[in-house]
Design goal:
Helix content: 40-55%
CATH topology of the largest domain: Conserved hypothetical protein from pyrococcus furiosus pfu- 392566-001, ParB domain
Strand content: 5-15%
Shape: flat
Number of domains: 3
CATH architecture of the largest domain: Alpha-Beta Complex
Largest sheet: 5 strands, mixed
Distance between the termini: 56 Å
Number of strands: 5
């Protein structure tokens, strides 16, 4: 688990539009109530964020955030962890499960559907999803049946070593939709970025207070690391492409099923 931090954040540096808001709408009466309470000196718990190195994604405390803005506050106390926007969304699914303004029935459905619609989280056991979202196991099971997703047989937390090992595909064997975009401008920018990075490392080596042999060794290590990073980036693009393609196909199938169900319902009523 990532180590948490507590700090005062500039309220304008908090991102609220990255898919981490699970509510259908903000309750303006609650915002006004919180704003009044803040004006009267009441101390609220810090909001919760996930920091990816650039942005602070708000995962819990949207009503407190809006109340603070309403009062003209320029900073707000926050508790956070380092992570990705994907991890921020996962954290938001667990927000308000046991405190604050409870989620409505529709909002709980939205949260569980979001996990069942994810290529990774849909493999979690119903009990794991229920525990994370603060709902019952039967609630998750009911929604899983609505989506006609087979019930998971194993926990998503099964050690990697226990999972079947799939044969890795070479980059050139991947389908076209998974290949990195063939964009000349993007390639040119990437080339310039790589050249600039390589020059930066060469200058750093040249400035070292070391013997020529030690500098040569350092340069070799840096080049090895850069090559490893390049290969990992290629693999990451492939993995992301596969994930997005499967999610898109899953989404299209759900739309088709919903359309067929509506047609069947109309036929039954006629």
């Amino acid at each position: 688990m990532a180590k948490s931090f507590t700090k005062t954040l500039d309220i304008d540096d908090i991102c609220i539009d990255a898919g981490t808001q699970v509510r259908e709408k903000i309750d303006e009466e609650i915002v006004q109530q919180y704003a009044d309470d803040m004006d009267h000196g009441d101390v609220f718990p810090p909001i919760q964020v996930v920091f990816d190195g650039v942005k602070n994604y708000l995962t819990d405390g949207f009503h407190r955030y809006h109340a603070a803005r309403k009062n003209g506050y320029i900073t707000i106390e926050a508790v956070g962890v380092n992570g990705t926007v994907r991890e921020a969304r996962l954290a938001s699914y667990a927000a308000n499960g046991k405190h604050g303004l409870r989620l409505t029935h529709a909002e709980r459905r939205k949260v569980v559907f979001a996990m069942l619609d994810d290529i990774e989280y849909s493999d979690w056991l119903d009990t794991e999803i229920a525990r994370h979202c603060g709902v019952s196991k039967s609630f998750v099971g009911k929604l899983r049946k609505e989506l006609e997703i087979p019930k998971a047989k194993t926990s998503a937390k099964t050690p990697v070593g226990d999972k079947p090992i799939k044969e890795e595909k070479a980059k050139d064997d991947l389908p076209p939709e998974v290949q990195p975009p063939d964009n000349l401008a993007e390639e040119a920018m990437q080339m310039l970025f790589s050249e600039n990075e390589a020059l930066t490392h060469r200058l750093a080596v040249a400035a070292m207070d070391a013997t020529e042999e030690e500098k040569a060794m350092a340069s070799t290590l840096i080049n090895d690391y850069l090559e490893q990073i390049r290969i990992l980036n290629i693999e990451l693009v492939s993995v992301k492409g596969s994930r997005d393609r499967f999610q898109n196909e899953n989404s299209e199938l759900k739309k088709q099923i919903a359309s067929l169900q509506r047609q069947l319902k109309k036929f039954q009523q006629s």
